[in-house]
Design brief:
The structure is a homodimer. Chain A is α+β, with helices and mostly antiparallel strands. Helix content of chain A is 37%, strand content 10%. The first copy, chain A, is built from five helices and two strands. Chain A has a two-stranded antiparallel ribbon with strand order 1-2. At the A-B interface, helix 1 and helix 5 of A face helix 1 and helix 5 of B. Chain B binds a DNA duplex through helix 3.
Chain lengths: 126, 126
DNA sequence: GTACTTGTACGAGCAGAGTCGAACATAGCA
DNA sequence: TGCTATGTTCGACTCTGCTCGTACAAGTAC
C-alpha cells in the first residue's frame, strides 16, 4: 500500500522568550548515545508521543494530557522521563504543567535522518 | 571532536549464485516494524555486529566467529537471532557455519537513513 | 570409527522495563 | 479554607531481555 507522505513541518528556531522556565535535567548534546535514543524509541507508545509532537507542534510545547493517551498518569510520567533522559525531548515546568517538545536540532545534529524515520512511522504499518 | 567520516561501501546487488542455501526464517520486508528494529539496534554489541557487517562486507556474508566477539557462543546465538528476527540481518546455513549479512536493501526501502545512522555510530562517541 | 569445530537448545540467575494503584505535592481558584 | 487539576514518587507485580554454563546436534577431517 502506498504510504501517505508526511511532510516535515518547517522548523523555525525561535529565541526563548523571557521568563521561560529552565529545562529539566537532560543529557547534553554531546552525551547523546545512539543506542540509548534507539532504545527510547523502541516503544510504540513513545514513538506515538514523539511523532505527535513532531507533526502537531503548533505551539512551543505541550502538556502531558494534550496527547490523549489512555494510560494512568504514573505510566505517562515513566515514558516521558524515559524520553527526556535519553535526550529525545526537552521538558519545562510551567506552573503545574510539564510541557515537552522534541530536541529536533540536537537529534538532527547527532543522528541525521532519525527524526524523519519517526515522522514516516505509523502505528499500523510499523 | 571531529567524527571520522565513514564512507558507505558501494552496494553491488548480485544475483544469488546457484546452490545458495535458503535464508533462515525471517520477517518479510512488509512485516518489518520500526520499533522492533530500533529495539534490536539499541544494544551496543548488536550495533557493533551490524556496523562491522556493513563496513567490512568484502565477502557475501560472515560466520559468527569472524566478528571476534569475546562472548560465549550461546550469547552470540541470542544476539544474532534477535537481529534476524527483527529483520536486520539475513542468515544462511553453509554446512556448519551460519553466515550473516545485513538486509541493506530492505532496510533502505522501509527505513531510509537508518543504515547510515549505524555506519556513523562509534562505540565511544555513542 | 574418533576428534574437532560450529552452533543450537535449554534452563537458571539477574537486572531492567512496563504496568498500575495509592499517596503525596503544588498551583490556581472559589 | 477547601476543592480541583496536573503530575510526581513509591512500591509491587509481571514480563522480557541479557548473560552464561551445560548438554546436545551436525558437518569435517583424520
Amino acid at each position: 500500500m502506498p504510504v501517505t507522505a508526511q511532510t516535515r513541518p518547517a522548523v523555525t528556531v525561535m529565541p526563548e522568550p523571557p521568563g521561560t522556565p529552565p529545562p529539566l535535567p537532560e543529557p547534553a548534546i554531546e552525551e547523546l548515545r545512539l543506542e540509548t535514543v534507539l532504545g527510547a524509541l523502541s516503544d510504540p507508545l513513545r514513538l506515538r508521543i514523539v511523532r505527535k509532537l513532531l507533526l502537531e507542534r503548533e505551539a512551543f510545547d505541550h502538556p502531558c494530557g494534550w496527547f490523549g493517551l489512555d494510560r494512568p498518569k504514573s505510566s505517562l510520567t515513566h515514558h516521558f522521563r524515559a524520553l527526556r533522559e535519553a535526550g529525545v525531548i526537552r521538558q519545562r515546568q510551567y506552573g503545574l504543567e510539564r510541557r515537552s517538545h522534541v530536541r529536533v536540532e540536537d537529534l538532527d545534529t547527532r543522528f541525521p535522518g532519525l527524526v524523519d524515520l519517526v515522522i514516516a512511522w505509523s502505528p499500523e504499518s510499523g
